[in-house]
Please model this.
Amino acid sequence: MSERQVTALDVARRAGVSRSAVSRTFTVGASVAPATRDKVLAAAESLGYRVNFLARSLILRRSELVALVVSDMDHSFRARTVDLLARGLVARGYRPVLLPWSEGDHPARLIDMMLQYSVAGAIVTSDTPPHQIAEQSARWGVPLVLVNKAPVADRSARVVQDTEAAGRLAAEVLCSAGCRRIAYIGQERPSYTIRDRREHFIAAARELGLVVAAEVAGAAQNHFGGMEAAERFLASGVAVDGVHCCNDFLAIGFIDGLRRAGLSTPADLAVVGCDDIAEAAWPAYELTTIRQDAGDVARATLDALMACIAEPNAPGRTTEVGVSLIERASTQRPT
Amino acid sequence: MSERQVTALDVARRAGVSRSAVSRTFTVGASVAPATRDKVLAAAESLGYRVNFLARSLILRRSELVALVVSDMDHSFRARTVDLLARGLVARGYRPVLLPWSEGDHPARLIDMMLQYSVAGAIVTSDTPPHQIAEQSARWGVPLVLVNKAPVADRSARVVQDTEAAGRLAAEVLCSAGCRRIAYIGQERPSYTIRDRREHFIAAARELGLVVAAEVAGAAQNHFGGMEAAERFLASGVAVDGVHCCNDFLAIGFIDGLRRAGLSTPADLAVVGCDDIAEAAWPAYELTTIRQDAGDVARATLDALMACIAEPNAPGRTTEVGVSLIERASTQRPT
Model:
């Protein structure tokens, strides 16, 4: 039922110009006389002509498609980053192909998808360090940017959090709140960023003279994991006056776990999270946290990808994205 | 720096078979002798051969790409649906192209993107009813599924919520909680689904003998909008004993707004939301809500798209997705 596809030749005939004039009109940077251009555009409009990007991609051996490998879109920070990356790619003339990735998926499938469509580049924001993806991207010359991951290959660019600043800010705010003995609530299988931030947090805390008296790994990295971690922590009987949770959902669950046991924040325990999700500002929590801006991450990632596409043989660079402290009631302890 | 693209002919030579045997090996449903097939796959593997999907798409005039038009990925239900749709498309051999859409964007740009890549179909989950997208899809024969939208063209299939059941369940649970005078908290620019559900809620409430004493439109459809609506509602001085908020974020904000004014849920006011976001189960809220399962929505959408692709000339059908009542403490009033 669809209409016959209009070709460049149809447009050339309608406009009374050569086939090559049509082609030049639709090629960025090609030279064409303004009058010719206007005739071509008018004819294209009236015929409903559209450049066939598939054909162009075949000739150029590179499409405008960019693979966006993501996992864990349930997490609002991740979903927001993916949304901003997709908008940024579209604004730059690229088309994001969304490739969800779960632990246990076979990376060969992802790599096949990337190569089958001659993608212009790939962005990986999924949790698992994709060694094979990075190796294959380098082998086939596909520009690759890894977001918040360990380095896996010389050629892949990376965008990472300034985990040193993030860990230090968390330790400092607990110290300023008058805490002396603190606990760290992590997760069973920490991501690269969380592992790195934990080390900087522990180092900064010790440097400030704080005693790191306990470490608990949340079974899940969500609200339920935080409540469950609070229960286990309280059962251990270790006394502390401050806690740093590795993400905000865990921190909020931890606060609810403390409440269930009759303890309150910040009077009994100061709590600092990380991410600055919308829920952190809710009056039931007023959680102090370390903010990483999704817009900053998306911008740095798109800049890195454009640089890789422009200079495919340059070694991959690492861009650090800054963080900031958002102070709320959960660390404002009575002195 | 990338290696020369390996062709089907290279594979045929290495395997010692014909070019056509290679082609048949990589075509779904084509017949090829098992021994030949094994030789071809071994040669393809050793040479790193991959089917060029761009070339195949050009020949078939249809790619395996499916446009996924989305807005508002910040909303966790939307992000989860997009994730499930993308996974489902990949599992069925399609590749989702993520096209973010904001109010005020020019639809022509989206339509161009869809046609330039000869997409096999399109799914629209964005808020604004995309009249032009539906018209152009029909004109160019692109199968289209609209998720939670008003009908816009004969040919587009739709997946919608059973808003009649959702509205009725919300009214019934307030009635069972002993409420007699209730309020409805909506939003300034309600989506199709919310508008439809509101009508069914009001009708069911009246049928049950409840007085709908007030209606307030939240300025934003998030937690802040809920708190602000509570403030405005309380300032109006209208007395009610139950409230239905059009989504869970608004409902949770409304509960926080009541708390700020010294009122509590459910003792002073029963509250019922809609969506069943993760936060609804948090102990600070224990919100009764109407659940729509993102998995059900994604499955129905993918089934509808596959049906449209298989039978492009059939009129678009509408599939209703069921809802269920999740009862928590926010409607368990002392009798």
